Amino acid sequence: MKKLRVMSLELKVKDILRKLFTFNFSLLTSKRGFTLIEILLIIIVVSIAIPTLLIMVGQEAKFGVDAEIRVTATNVAQQLLEEIKAKCFDETSVSGTTCIQTAAASTTLGPEAGETALSLYDDVDDFNDLAPASLGTTPCTDTVTVNGIGFTRQAVACYVNPGNLNRCVDTAPVAGSCNRTIASGSQTDYKNITVTVTAPSDSGGGSVTLTTVMTNY
Cystine design at 125: which of 60, 80, 98, 109 (Cβ 3.0–4.6 Å)? Predict the structure, then answer.
């Protein structure tokens, strides 16, 4: 796709140059020379056209890179979201072949003691901390490098009510960690999971956010 975009840009530039210099080419094929006025006119046209063309080329290149980075960020976010969705609804869910519905969901959102690697996470809200090697400390994000670009990943899982699946039930932060607690009895059968992936500032700094809702089943 990138190759086709570059070819299209080259054709566009060639077409513009052809239109700009048609007059000059006709002069070259004639049997008379250039007058001073014609030479000055050519210099003026070229001095205006070349910077404009360079700006156009630069903008096209930037748009192409930005689009590619956004696609990569979306893929990174989708991959993390699918990994989270493969886990149980809650720490108290009985896991066997499948996760079984729990009657007493946890009041703490975040990884539990001993879960010091993403591979050890067993429920969706464990991913509130994506830096499990330093469990109990911040930051709660991690970085994934794709094609030499480091994308920052963040995941937030919270309880939501069925009447408003986009608003988290109020929680309180646990000091010095990525975990959050909820008042006993405020748990619901729904958890909103939001994944945000951000590109570094020197690569545009744009972000992509994906959201889904998991149910207690």
Answer: 109
